[in-house]
Structure formats: C-alpha cells, structure tokens
Design brief:
It is built from 4 helices and 8 strands; from the N terminus they run H-E-E-E-E-E-E-E-H-E-H-H. It is of the alpha+beta class. The strands form 2 sheets. A 4-stranded antiparallel sheet has the order 1-2-3-4. Strands 7-6-5-8 form a 4-stranded mixed sheet, with helices on one face. Strand 6 and strand 7 form a beta hairpin. It is globular, with a radius of gyration of 18 Å. About 30% of the residues are buried.
C-alpha cells in the first residue's frame, strides 16, 4: 500500500507510549473507555491507521479502526470502523510458519488487514485472546498463528513484543551455526 513509514506500533518504544497516552486521553477517555492495546496497520495516504482494543464502562470489548492525522500542529483521531469482540468469530494469521504481517478478522464480513510488523500482529492477537478470557470467555478461533508466541506463559512472551520474534530468530540461527560446526561422521 505504498511506501512504508516508520512504525508507531506499541512496540516502538517511547513514541508509541506517547501515542497510546494521547489516544487514551483524546479519544477513548471522553468515551469512558480503557484502551488496552493498539497497533499500526497499513492504510492509504498520509494518515496513519491504528487497530485498537478498548473496554467500555459496561465491560464490552470494542475493536476499532482509528484514523490519525495532523492539522497544523494538532493531532486528530477519528474512529472509522467499529466492531465488538462478541461479534468476532475468528482471527486468521494467514501463515503461522511465515514472518508476515497479514491477518483477517472474521465478523459478519471478513476484514483483511496488514499490521506494521509480524510482531504487532501477534501482539494484537494476544490482546484479543486475553480480553476474551477476561470478559467473554467465548470460543474464539485464533488460527494460523504460532502457539508459542500467543501464550503468555511461553518463554518467548515479553513486554518487548518485537524482541520475542528477534529472540526466536537468534535462537534458530545459533542452532544452525552449532549444527553446521558438528562433524557428520
């Protein structure tokens, strides 16, 4: 969808913390919602788009697409699409064995999305899974994701998000180096 911008996903450190704080204050706070997670998703044009997971005062889990743009020096946010977790039937990660940012959310219609990174796609799936366990406890299908990265009790789980992908790549690379140094006889 055009040239890549620097990421502002929740794994981008201090800048993303500021964006999350700003989203919570300007958009979700006035609506009396708690923002749990957001990831940047690809969109057209100069605007940024975030996929957000928030909990309403009545404890409904809302998933929404937020458009972000700047007018003069002021940040603007607008919810352009909204769904409820209770209506989500499935999250399809497309290919569990491939490092790709693509996933589908199945509501009454299928929405094809591209996260900024594979790690942020997993971050969002983990958040939705946690929120489902906390508030709905429904049978939510999360398919074509590597289970190792989805479970919080996993060694690869981390609050550093992108680090868990990098850690696993390094682990596999070191195993390959060790194997290549072993004599075959």
């Amino acid at each position: 969808m055009g040239a890549r911008r620097p990421p502002l996903s929740s794994s981008a450190g201090a800048m993303s913390s500021l964006v999350k704080e700003d989203l919570a204050k300007r958009l979700f706070g006035p609506r009396r919602q708690r923002l749990h997670e957001f990831i940047e998703v690809e969109g057209a044009g100069a605007q940024r788009y975030y996929l957000c997971a928030a909990v309403t005062k009545s404890e409904e889990v809302e998933i929404c697409m937020v458009k972000h743009w700047r007018v003069n020096r002021e940040e603007k946010y607008e919810i352009v699409e909204k769904w409820f977790l209770k209506d989500l039937e499935m999250i399809d990660g497309k290919e569990a064995d491939t490092d790709n940012p693509y996933f589908d959310m199945h509501f009454h219609k299928v929405y094809n999305l591209e996260a900024y990174s594979c790690a942020s796609k997993y971050t969002f799936a983990r958040t939705i899974s946690k929120l489902n366990a906390m508030y709905l406890k429904k049978d939510l299908k999360i398919v074509n994701f590597d289970e190792t990265y989805l479970n919080d009790d996993s060694i690869w789980s981390s609050s550093n998000r992108d680090c868990l992908v990098l850690m696993r790549i390094c682990f596999y690379a070191s195993n390959l180096v060790c194997l290549s140094l072993c004599p075959l006889s």
